[in-house]
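[recover] target loaded
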């Protein structure tokens, strides 16, 4: 069973953290979830990494501020910049020594980039590998929801307006009955061809735990972020990027631009998969994370570009 901990941040926000593995493990893997989700999204990866590596790897998940079992926060701190600062604090708290591999899904991947941008020396001293899952370094540049650009612009306007309203609703949480009614829309937006009913239930449960302030408050920051230059400075690190070809939120061009900025990154495109790759394609995600961890454990790095995307 994972050890449950709490990390208290300088503004008194409390983060719910779960740790599996010994404190003296050779490498720590920190898994960061996406917008409106929580650390439970990684349950298949936690189980797989624990079985593969045993005591050699410590696995950490945590709920971002305003999400899951972490506490709510002031609206002004609902930004990716703050999440980057929070990640730096989590690294210091749960893994004060030794190499760290960061695995970020969607907003979690953007959090990793923000940490690298805002704390470059801290990042360089601690981070040994990266895995980006269904994320982007270019905000909403490529997001068209699988629709025509004109319709996508209208949806984005409505979404941005609605996010502003939700952000002012404080620590209230969305009604579960409403989320259950929206499950068909959630399934269409987040998943590709295949979807296990238990995954829809988990996603809905996570959204029900996120405060309306966090659901609405982070939207502007997520849409505006551009961190390709930051990524280019990390090209020496072992890395992997994965995306589903049915991803309506961070489609393949998002992962392709990340791979272009990190030329030794192995880019995997999963046919028929949507935005929730760690649930839809756990074997591919597990393999990518394990591959980066092995390179860190053995001290090796792929010196040649990964080439064209690898179909999963």
């Amino acid at each position: 069973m994972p050890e449950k901990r709490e990390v208290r941040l300088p503004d008194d926000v409390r983060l719910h953290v779960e740790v599996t593995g010994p404190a003296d493990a050779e490498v720590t893997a920190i898994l960061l979830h996406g917008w409106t989700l929580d650390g439970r999204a990684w349950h298949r990866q936690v189980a797989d990494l624990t079985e593969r590596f045993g005591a050699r790897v410590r696995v950490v998940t945590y709920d971002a501020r305003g999400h899951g079992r972490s506490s709510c926060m002031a609206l002004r701190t609902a930004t990716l910049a703050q999440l980057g600062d929070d990640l730096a604090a989590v690294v210091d708290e749960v893994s004060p020594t030794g190499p760290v591999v960061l695995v970020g899904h969607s907003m979690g991947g953007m959090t990793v980039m923000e940490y690298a941008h805002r704390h470059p020396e801290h990042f360089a001293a601690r981070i040994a590998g990266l895995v980006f899952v269904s994320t982007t370094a270019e905000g909403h540049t490529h997001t068209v929801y699988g629709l025509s650009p004109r319709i996508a612009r209208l949806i984005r306007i409505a979404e941005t307006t609605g996010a502003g309203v939700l952000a002012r609703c404080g620590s209230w949480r969305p009604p579960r009955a409403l989320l259950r009614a929206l499950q068909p829309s959630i399934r269409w937006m987040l998943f590709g061809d295949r979807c296990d009913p238990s995954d829809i239930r988990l996603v809905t449960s996570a959204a029900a735990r996120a405060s309306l302030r966090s659901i609405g408050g982070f939207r502007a920051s997520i849409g505006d972020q551009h961190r390709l230059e930051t990524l280019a400075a990390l090209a020496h690190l072992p890395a992997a990027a994965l995306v589903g070809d049915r991803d309506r939120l961070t489609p393949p061009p998002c992962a392709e631009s990340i791979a272009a900025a990190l030329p030794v990154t192995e880019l995997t495109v999963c046919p028929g998969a949507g935005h929730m790759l760690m649930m839809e394609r756990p074997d591919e995600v597990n393999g990518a994370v394990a591959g980066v961890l092995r390179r860190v454990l053995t001290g090796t790095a792929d010196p040649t570009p990964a080439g064209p995307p690898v179909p999963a």
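[recover] notes: Residues 104 and 282 are 14 Å apart (CA to CA).
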